[in-house]
Amino acid sequence: MKQMLVRYIFLLLVLFCAQIFTVQAADRHTPIVDAVARARDAVVNIRTEKIVQRRGNPFFGFGDSLFDEFFEDMFPTRSYKTQSLGSGVIIDAEGHILTNAHVVDKASKIYVALAEESRELEAELLGQDSRIDLAVLKIVEPGPYPFLPPADSNDLLLGETVIAIGNPLGLGHSITTGIVSSLKRRVQLGKQYSSVFIQTDALINPGNSGGPLININGELIGINTAIARQAQGIGFSIPIDTAKRVVSDLIEYGQVRRGFLGIDIGDVSGNFVRSYGDGGILVEEVEPASPAATAGLQVADVILKVDGVKVASVEHFLSFMQTYTPGDNLELVCLRGAEERTLNVRLTTLPDGYQLAYTRRVFGFDLSEAQRGLTISQIIADTAADRVGLEAGDLLVEVDGIPVKSLDDYSQVIEDQLGRKPLTFTIVRGNRGYVVRLPDGH
């Protein structure tokens, strides 16, 4: 009888401990665990191979370009294969992958590894834009694949929990959590480019770059980007709404097409900035029949916000507009006199020949292709080109340091730089070269 009682008590203790363990396991099953489980299968490791060619040269420290010009046939060229790693997220069952442009830049081969597979799959680059730092890949082998569809980032809340997931080494996932500390943080990426990011304190290292930022529901709200190595405890992600605007262009055209607004702009005065707080941009000209004119924008209006993002300078505005494509709608908040107005604009494609018409209007010259290269065919009287002394017959070889050999080359460079003034033009006349800045002529 005593033995049976001991066994009964022991069984009760076992059942009680099991119940406690079950409760504890349930307590550990948090919303973050559910969110990661929902998203993790769509996160991939990206491995790229690049072929780098270097010429053997014994003149170390002397500037390769000078010696390569005279001794290029004397030293053999060697090829080196380099590898880099990053992350990405599959956004549809067909195997389209969103990642950072810098993860796959100049790659000759791209391979991806899924979370639950030991083998690598080859992927092809469909399109990239280094200014936005986004790229789209596609897995060559037919799907279907696990995926995480883009959600919305326009309803983010300051302080809400977010999760950054990466697959930096192909050995498993790297998961960090944090909160949203800024919804639309403007960050300068280079001399001419800035962008708007979600800022979090979720750790984002270079290996996690290109992976997804998700909310507590496991929804894709951003693409993680490692851009501030010196900033400890700060992470940046490209808002998924930005990616959604350009992803179809990257897939169909291999690049982001420029949306046409139809205005010339300039910076506002220092007095305006001091009185209004965060600046804005001044509308200096509105082209007839353009989307801006149709929406009611006028000369002397000051654009304060684009889709809720404050614009403090011409560069900020131009960089932000590069994330919009033809057909996109955007909301402009403008100051006209002392009254704020909200205008809705639908962008169109650039009109045919717009780059050359822009060149004539802003810089003051026409171009034509000749046997020796791109030649200035006409100087418009009393324009910037006329005032600095350019002449018909001058050879144009570079725009802002980018070589141009044809009208197509030139049009692409000008399209990328529309609205930025002044630009530098490298001109050859006879056996001499000149660098001029237009339209200010200094």
Helix proportion of residues, in percent?
Answer: 10-25%
| CATH class categorisation of the largest domain | Mainly Beta
CATH architecture of the largest domain: Beta Barrel
Strand order in the sheet with the most strands:
1-2-3-6-5-4
Overall, the morphology is elongated
- Give the number of helices: 11
Give me the count of strands: 26
Mean pLDDT rating: 84
Here the CATH topology of the largest domain equals Thrombin, subunit H
Largest sheet: 6 strands, antiparallel, barrel
Which stretches of 5+ consecutive residues score pLDDT under 50? Answer: 59-67
Considering the protein shown, what is the CATH homologous superfamily of the largest domain? Trypsin-like serine proteases
Total domain count: 5
Structural class: alpha+beta
Radius of gyration: 28 Å
**DSSP strand content:** 35-45%
| Distance between the first and last residues' Cα | 107 Å
